[in-house]
Structure formats: C-alpha cells, structure tokens
## 1
Amino acid sequence: MTAATIGRPGFAFQAIAIATLAALFVGSLFVGVTNLSIRSLVSDPEALRLVMVSRLPRTLAALLAGSALAIAGLVMQTLARNRFVEPATAGTAQSAALGILVVTLVWPNAALGWKAAGAAATALAGTSLFLMLAHRLPPTQPFLVALFGLVYGGVIGAVATFLAWRLDLLQYVEVWMTGEFSGILRGRYELLWVAGALVALALWTADRLTILSMGRDASIGLGLNYAGVLRFGLVIVSAVTALIVVVVGTIPFVGLVVPNIVSRFAGENLRHTLPWVAGGGAALVLACDMIGRLIRFPYEVPVGTVLGVVGAVLFLILLLGRNRND
Amino acid sequence: MIEISGVSLTLGGSGILNDVNLTVPKGGVTALVGPNGAGKSSLLSLIARLQPLQSGRITVDGLAVDTTPSRELAKVMAILRQDPGVASRLRVAELVGFGRFPHHRGRLTAQDREIVAASLEQFDLGDLSLRFIDTLSGGQRQRALVAMTFCQGTDYILLDEPLNNLDMFHARNLMRTLRRIGDEHGKTVLIVLHDINHAAAHADRIVAMKDGAVVASGDTEAIIRPDVLESIFGFPMLVERVAGRLAVLHHT
C-alpha cells in the first residue's frame, strides 16, 4: 500500500455503500400512505405527479439534510476539537430557532429565505460564543465540553421557548425544534440545495479542516490561515444548521454519531472520510424517515423523534464500544 | 540566520522574556538550555510566530516573523512544540504527509510522497505507518511528529524538547539525524534540550537562558565548563572528558 491509498475502504465496500444508499433512495419513493408501484408510474399520471410533487422532494430533502447535518457535526467537532459536540445540541440549532423567532416577530410575512438568513446570523453568534467559551475549558476533560454544550444549548432553547410562550408562538417553536419531513413538497425544500452546496465547499477544503483539527500551533506551523479556516468552519456549521432548522426542524444525533462511527473505522483524514460522513448521514436520515412513516402506518412519527431514539442507542453503543476497544 | 533583538514578552502581568538579543548563525545545531521557566519555549514560540511579538524584532533568514505571510514562513521554518496535542485520528503516514502541506497546499505530488517515505524510514516508522496515532505509545507519537516536522523540508527547524518520551536508541538517533542534516544539508537546527549531555555531544553552539534572558552563549566547548554550568543551573557539577568527549556529571 502506498501513502496515497492508505485508509481507503476497498472497492467492494464502496459499491455496497452506494448500493445501500440507492436502495434507501428508491425505497423512500415508494413508502407512504398512497400505494405506489413501478407499473403505476408508467400507466397512471396521478402516481407520477405524486412522486414528482411529494415523494421525490421529500427523499431529496432527507438526503440533503442528512448529509449536511453529518458534515456540520464533523466540522463543529473539528472546530471545538471535541468528538462529543454537535450543532443540534450545543446551541447552534437553538440559536437558529431564536433567530427565526425574532425574524417572525419583526417581519411576520418574511419569506423562508429571509428567515433562514436571520437564523444563520444568530446561529453564527451563538456558535461563536460557544466555541470561545469551550476553548477555555481544559482539553484534558473532553466530556466537560460536551456537557457544557448541552447546558449552553439548553439555556438558549429555554430563552427561545420563554419568548415564544410570552408571544403566543409556541406551536411555531415546536415545529423548528422537531425535525419532520411530512410537510415537504416541491417548492418547500429547495433551500436545502444551498446546504448541499455548503457540504461540497466543505469537501473542497478537507485538507485545511484536517490541519485545523491538529490544533492551533500545528496549523500555524504549517502556514495555515488558522483564524480564517476557523471562521469558514463557523459559517458552514451555522448556515447549514439554520437552513435545516428553517426547512425541516431540528434533527438530533446525526451530527454526533455518523462522524464518530466513520472516525472509528476510517480515521479523521477528512479528504478520505468526508464523503463517507456525508453518505452515512444521508442513509441514516433516509432510513429513520422511512421508519417514521411505517411504524404507525398510516400515521407518521417525525424523523426527529425517531432519530432521538435510534441516535441515542447508536451513541450508547459507540461509547461502550470505545471503552472496550481502546 | 536567526536574529533576535530587543525582544520582551509579558504574559498575564508577569515578565517572561526581558530584552533578549541573540543571533543564531546559519547552519549547524544550536542547543537552547536553561532551568525550568527560563523562557526557552516562549522564545521558540515567538521565533515561530505562534505568539504575537510584543516588542523587538525577530527575523529568520531575513524574513521578519511578524510581517511575513505565515505560508511563506512555513516553507522556511518548521516548529515542533513540546506538547502539540495532536488528537486527530490520523494514520502515521497521513500525519507525516501533512508536513508537505506548505509546499503543495493540495494533493501530495510524487516527489512529496518520496520525501514522506524517506522520513518514515528515517525515524523507524515504516512498520507503524498505517497505525492511527491515537494507538501509539508516547515515544512513537513523538517520532511521528518529529518526522512530520522534518518532512516540511525547511532550512530552519525549531524543536522544543523533542527527546521527551524517547528511549535512548531513538533519542540518539534523532540527535544524530539533526547533526547530519546540520552538516550535510546546511540546515539550521535550534533545539531546546534538557539533557545537557545531548547538547554537549551533538550541538555546535549552546545558548543558555535564565530568568527570561540569555546569560551565556557560545561554542559548546566554551559553555560546557563547571563554572559556566553552575552559574546557569545553580549547583556545582563535574565536567569530565571520557574517551575524548565531554560528559557532565549532574546527577550525582
């Protein structure tokens, strides 16, 4: 093996992964209250319309949101130099929700794009403050940063909830706090393509993000614009999280478990692992959305709730497995 | 040449460095010695632009470290801190490969790969090249970090106590490698050392610091003397010649 090929899963493994993602994609098109078959797609124009207006947008939304969430989680872990933080719990998503609330207050009829912009701005402020405080905590205590993140996110979430309660907007906050794809139709999810573009941008800067994860001194020693890459990462995390909260709502655990699973098997050379993290996030969210559609058929369980359970279980397995292996 | 003039540093209200003036000539190995808290690591950080310069001026090969773009400096000088705390789960070969980043800033070229392979070989890391660094022992990790620093291929190499965690074999190997690149490739090595005998055996020049100032500096022979060493470290020690080499008996 040469230095160029180390750490890359074999071709067979790649093929299996792509096939799994494709199967989930196709499966997601055919799971739902209205029965669909491949034959009806050809013969029945209504069936084709259903796919084009509802099922395909929903599937694409899950795909985009899943990969973007996982990448945002990974980038946030790189910035915080801590494996146990993610935007959904450490204040980014809560700050975004607070931002949408503020935009809704001052400009009730704002378009989705403006709400997303407001959410991104507050998410940026909230995440920057989190990182500033987290960098002051001792690096020898990784769980302290994670716990601090939970408290920090909890406090901002409480502020948003309190504001919403006083202003009689609680049901809106509920929508942003619980991720759900059932409302996704054509024309209601396209902002997620922007999140997808940000993921592509993160892929392009993989080497710089890897060096950033090696710490400030090593980064500067290698001539990296440390502060610049840090800011870039902050923008990616904040914008991606804000877009997802606005369009879908908060989906927990994806940004936490997917990067950790990939890191366990393939390490953290992001040039090689980012595609796996993005694909893994997409597969996890697609699968959980399908579980949510099937478990109480014909009713739906929100994907955020399903992932709350599935993600927690995966995270516990990761934590326990970590102690056994290391 | 590294030129330091009038450099002072104050952190949190306490003075770390006090008007340091020093010239490290180009080529060869210069050891920086002194008791704990003398300011050796701080001086190295300032030279390597890891800390902002508060006063004075530092140039490396004529480049002012506070105004030259960091990416240009990265091609001229490499730094290995005492505890860089690289926690990422990278394979040894990947980590060492990132030493080439200042040159390609993208993909490794074929030439970069050769340099990486040679560096792995040089520091006895061939068998470990596919291991994740978080599974290595302290000494193996240290070797990987040193290999990465070497891979940067710069004319100036700054190392802060690189012998930490290394066993005798690898400590000697590292010092001899530094000696060789100083001799054969004309590189300038500035190294903070705690083991005075490594300095005595391998350094061309020794710079001694105490209480934030340079208290002695000169050829190794001129510094490795009982009176000079006592004035630096504060206790008497014997200096003997064993088989023609200087040996400091500081532990008896």
Note: The CA atoms of residues 163 and 171 of chain B lie 6 Å apart.
## 2
Amino acid sequence: MTQLLEHPAKSSTAIGLSVDRVDAREKLAGSAEYTGDLHPPSMLYGAVLRSQFAHAEIESIDTTGAEATDGVIAVLTGDDLTDLDPYYGHALRDRPIIAIGKVRFVGEPIAVVAAKSQTIADAALSAIDVSYRMLPHATTLDRALAPDAPLVHEGPVRPGLAHGLGKLPEREGNVCYRYGFSFGDVDAAFARAAVVVDDEYVFPAVYQYSMETHTTIAHHRGREITVWSSCQHPFLVRQEISELFEVPLDDVRVIVPYLGGGFGSKSYTKMEPLAVAISRKAGLPVRIMNRVDESMVTTRRHNMKCRMRTAASAEGQLLGRVVEMWLDTGAYADNGPRVTATAGDAGPGPYRWEAVDVKARCVYTNTSPAGSYRAFGATHLQWIGESQVDEVARRLGLDRVEIRRANLLPRGGQVRPGAKGLDADLVGDVEKVAAALDWSSPRPQNRGVGLSVGLLAAGAHPVSMATVRLGADGGVTVLVGTTELGQGARTVMGQIAAEVLGLPASRVVVRGTDTSYTPYDRSTGASRSTTVAGKAVEDAATQVLEELIKTAEMALGVERHELVVSEGRITGGGAAMTYEELIERRFGLKGGELIGQGHVGPRGGSGGFADGPVFWEVCIGGAEVEVDPETGVVTVLRVSTVADVGKAINPLLVRRQDEGAVMQGIGNALFEEMRFSEDGLLLNDTLLDYRIPSFEDLPPSMSCTIVENEDGPGPFGAKGCGEGALAALPAAIVNALADAGVHMSELPLTPERVWEKIQSAQRIRKNDSKEERYQ
Amino acid sequence: MSTMITATINGRRFRGEVEDNELLIDFLREDLGLIGARQSCEVEVCGSCTVLVDGLPVSSCCYLACDLDGKVVETIEGVVGTAFHEVLADAFVRHAAVQCGYCTPAMVLTAKSLLDDERLTDEESLRRAMRGNLCRCTGYRAILDALMDVMGSGRVAEAGSGR
C-alpha cells in the first residue's frame, strides 16, 4: 500500500507539470459564463439608490414615483425588512441589508428598484425622494479617533458567525476591534540600542478592481432561495443568507459560475443579501450588477496609519520593535478585524527579537467599508518594517542582505507567541532574490535596489471537504468548493486528483460550486486552496484508489503489495486491469462509480486559531528602480521574486501568480489610491481617475525563482502562493527608492509626493550647509 | 426613437431596428447573445468590451449600436475557429496567459487588429499598442510572452490574420 501512495517525481503523471489550464480554451473563445451572462426566466434588473451623505438620519423615503413607473415591479427600502433581524457581517454583525433609519457612508444602499430592464430600473431611481437630517461625521482616522468623535455605531457589539477571533472585545469609541501581542522587555531592549529608527507612516485606501464587478442574481421563491453570485466564499454566503432570511441551510442554494477576478473583493458576503431581499419582494429573480463606482464603495483595502520603532545594537543585532497601527475599516467592519489581526502578525517581521510590542486597532469611519484584498495586513506592514531594517543597516554601514542574514528567523523560529513556528528557509530565499538583482553591482546616480522579506499568516480556518468520483469510463470528476477566480484552482485540484490516481490531468473534470451538491469549503482566500482544499482532494482521491486496490486484490487474486498502479490500470499476478474493467467487475455492469470523500479540519477540531496559521506564506521580492529628480517619476526597471511554495503543483501557474501579484504591488506602491473628500465622497470613482497598471507599467525585467523545500502542510508538501509578492513589492520599491536617496513614509509613491520629498530634502541640505558656513 | 441599420456581424448580415440610445455592448450581449464582450469600466478605459468595427478595436461600452450602419463587426464568437484564433489561443494556453479570462476575448481581438501591423517590431511597440486593454490578473507578462511568441514565429501571417 505504502509504495502505491508514494509519488516519486519520475513517475509523476500530473504534479510538478505545467499542464494546460482546464478553463483556458472556453475563456479564449468568450464562451465561459460569468454571473452577468446568466438569465434565469423572468429575471428582473436591479438598480441601487445610494446615499449621497456620509452620516445622516433618513427622515423619510418616498418611493411612490418609482413604483408608478412603467416596467418597475418592486422597490425595496429598510421598511420592508421589519419581519427580519436584518443585520449581517461575518466578523461583526453590524451591517443592515439596506440602510435603516440612518446612512453611515456615501454610497450606502438606501433603496433598490427591480424593473423589466436595466434602463428602466436606473431611470426610476431619480423618482425616489429621500429626506435626510445631517449628522456630524468622522470621515478620517484622525477624526474618528478624536475624543469627541461622532460615533459611527452605537449599541452593543454583535459577533458575526465566522469571525474566528475568539472573544471579541467591547467597542471603544469608534475602535471596533483591538489586537496585539508582546514579549520580552521592550524598555530594556531599547535602552541598550545603539540605533533607534522611529517614524510615522501612511498607507492609502486601495481598490481591488476585479474586472468583473460584484454581480448577483437572487431568486427567493417560497421557502427556497437560489443565488448565483460572483462570490469567493459561497458556503459562508449561504450561511449568512440562511440566518438573515430565516431559511434552513439546505434551502439556500449558492451557485458560482466563473469569477472575473476576486483578489479578496468578493470574499464573504457582499451584494447577496440585497439581491435576495429585493427578489423576496418582487417574487421573481433579480440581478444586481454593480458599476465600477459601486464596487469601489462595496469594498476596498484598509487605509492605515502606523507608528513604528525599531531598535538595534551597534553590531546590527535587531533588539526590539514597537508597532502601533490604526486601520480604517470604513462604516462597517466587513473583514476589518481579521485584516487588523493579520496586520498585527506582520508587524514584527520575520526576525529574532528580544522584545516586541504590537498594538493594532480597527477603526470605524464614515467612509466605504474595507475588507479583504490580496496579501492584506502583510502589504500594510512589510514596507514599513523593512524600510526600518534598511535604515538600521544604513546608519550602521552594514549591507542590507547581511543584516537580514544575521537576524532572520531560522526554520522553526517563533513568529509570534502561540503561533506555528516558521516553516521556511528565509535566508535562502533572500539570497536568491539578491542574486537575481546583481545585488552588489554599482549603479548609476538616481538608481537604487531594494528587497524585502516578510510573512503572511495564511490558510484561514482550515475546513474543506471534497468528493472524487471515478466513473465507469475511467474519467474522474472532482467536487470541491474552491472558487475558480482566475488563480487556476480547477486545474490544480484536477492535477492533485490525477496524480493520486496515476492518471493524466486531462482525465479529470473539476466543476464550479453549487452548494446543493458540492461539499463544504470554508472559503477561497488566504492562499489556502491548494494547501487545504487540495489536501481534501488528495484524501478523497486516495480513498478511490483504495477502493480500486481492494477490487484488484479480489479480481486479480493477489495481495496489495504485489500490485502496481500505473497509467489507469492495476497490474499484478501477471495480469492487468484498467479502471473501467475494475469498476465493471465491482458492480457487475458497465456502470456505477467509485466515490471518495476527503476532509480537512483544524487540529483537534478546536475551531480556534490558537495553533494557526496553516502556514506562513513567504512574502519576498526585490526591485531596482530609477527616480527622475526633476519630475519625481519612479520607474521599476527590474523585479525579482521567490515563490517559496513547498512543492509547485503547476510551476508555470505559480510563476504567473507571482507576476500578477508583482503588478498589483507596483500599482499599490506607485499610484493606486482612493481619495475621499472631507465629506467622505470618493473623488476618483472611475477607471479614468483611478489608474491601475497597464502593459506600459510592466518592468523590462522580471524573474521568479520557485523554491520547493516540500515543507508545506498541503498535498505533496505544497503550500499556498500568489499573495506574497504583492506584500513584498511595495516594500522592495520603497527600499530601492531610499537606496537611490529618497526616503518615503507615505504610499503611493506618486511623482508629486516623491518630488516634494526630494525638494524638501534639498532644502534641508541647503539650510544645513548655510548653518555650517555661518558657524 | 429607433433607427434601422444594416451591418455585417461575424460574417452575417444583420438588418433591424435599434434604439438610438442603445450601446453596442448591450446590443451584442442582450439582443444577440454574444457574451464574449465583457462589461467593466464603462468609460472606455479597460478595454474588456473590445470588439472590432471595420477591423479596428472599439470599446463597445461607448459606441452606439445605431452607428453600426454599413459597418462590419467582429466579436470573439466570430473569430473562434479561424486559423488566427487557433494560433493565438495555442500561444495563450502555452504561456498560461489566461487567468480569470474576463479580459481575454478583448485581448485576442485587439491582437488581431495589431499582429499584421509591420510597425510592431518589438516588445516595446507591442506594449504600447496593447495599452488600451487592462488585465488585473496576469500582470501582462504572460500575455506579452504569448503575443511575442506568435509574432516572432510568423505563424500569424501564415494563419492569415489580415483584415
């Protein structure tokens, strides 16, 4: 048996091979279906009236004009939800399905129109009259944290159904969640420091921009609710819909077609409750398809301010770090508490410290809600921590690779108290990045090179199930709840099943999720699919293999240790049987199927995160940049990343994940920023004003090294990837820019901001030299 | 108000009335069921709704259906199955240049309008020519690798991408 389940690389049928993506051809043909391509019979089109004000009481809503419009079937307001407890939120149950008595941000849904066409629905919105009474607002972190700040929420904190954060603390003012940890004697560490770097930092709000906007079709029919949605976590959506509308889980069906990108923006519950609520009133299926400006105020990345202090000895030993951070989660918590905890975990960086103190705060403001975006937390903190490590090196005259080599955590080292030890070789990773950048080569003026390394608590709550079915024709179907959002999940899940069964990946089909038939999977995010859901697929396929072997033992009349599995057949005792023949023998007809079930749960079934994370995702990359001192324009010339993935199930897809993350990192670092007015209005709410990277921003040189130490908890030693490079790139670029002489403490690195910094640095230098002259 | 138009859409003659304010993307997707043109930014920036009108890429989100009169329209559905599409699709698959796929048909169509352009001699000129098509997943490297592969090989010319 053992020999059958080992997977020596040489006989690999699917793992480690860059097999073609299973979804590529239909996507290239334009025939792949996304939610917006579906048309259930009698589907209506929804349009959402959104608040124009950041904080106001709703005195009255008059919908009679809209209701009287030809083609309008129903209009929904908060008054329609009095028979429900209409609050949801997986972390904090703080959000009404639609505004009830009050709006808390510009863009909050106030009313929904369902009509026979999108044009009619959109036009009817202007026939709704809303009368507001203004309330004082807190649209920035500073205003929300002021002692006399207006409160965004009042009343007790209600825990959401999937927060996974233990006992939630009480709200303090607008601070809705606090996270922190410390160890060692911070005062003592700083007292014996030769160098202390101490600065304040600002990170902007960023829009994920999945090209497909949030799109949901809901049909509330009798006791049954069907939802087609562009959602990453269908099972969590099902659970929240079930609770909100008081319908048993089994009567809620969530179907997920292809997603046009996610990047975290479609994690947890987004437009689904609103779509179900309007469908409940209209009695027909209703589609809500956000415009980009609507998706921008549906979710975003947290903006943040941070103060960090790093202490080091004269020899360059890192001694202590103190971090305080405040993350702006907007008007509703969404995933803010988890983002805050993950940011806290990223605070110390992957170093051996004598003492650390981390305090992270999640803060309500009267702006649009913030949630998940690829590599959250790590992206927020890595550029800050890594720029301080570079600054220590600079002040002590040490090489920046050397200081990391001397201080990085070893394998098994403590990342934070109570968490899993480090499961990677970081020094090896740093050396690979540096080598790819010709680290020590001299560079012309205005050029610099930088690298960064960090860790992202990955895997989320590790609960995934999978079913593998081997059919009578020898083909395999995998049912697994991982969402294909572009990352290649269906391809990789197929490869894992194929490998176990000794088949080529082309014999395996992986379908999209339908919660009525697909086994439970907690979520698609936190780089968990390959590691957690993949493990469930591996287990399920192994069960199928076991059934095949049992059948072969009987059919061939030999013991299992004499059997050899290869190329879709089992050989033993001088005979061979194909899987088709084995199934026929088993059931006595050309039919039936062998089914395996796999499941993954947290160790001991604790349900807690005490011994998490599932793995530490390595966030590492380097960049070479050039700055034009006349204009402040920063150009990325070269990028190098390491994908420390344990085992690359599909090496080409790993590399392509890193490249995509790199480009998002460049956008986050150089120009992406959601700008809000004093009154909380999003100023750049179209792609005309909110720029994302284009072909022209592609660095001329990019390299990705895949490291396979088989040290992950997933199948074949794999661990997740695809987020780390996004956290690493802004940090690498900030450090490269500092190497070129410009030290920045606010992102993004817009030309204006960089130019101002260069100018002010020159003024300081001039003043210094004047002072010297007059002394 | 509506207008009678005659146009050639994916090689077939279309004659019918369209509303004067109907956008090309809605006409294609809702009236003709040609879903390969994807809606995203709605302001002619992202390029995901690209189709070819008289051989040139246009953003169907900002083009009126009534302006099609007398014109030739190609959508991804009309290009699938041609030798050009096969060559390019093979290259996209080989280089894993497809992720979520939302931008992919538009990338293919823009490439179709470009790949027989003799001025596109190197990666830099190709990047400039493709800049009107955004992709958030791939980071562009894979798509560029696929396009360069096909351009360099002369296989597109053999397959006859010519307009």
Note: The two ends of chain B are 34 Å apart (CA to CA).
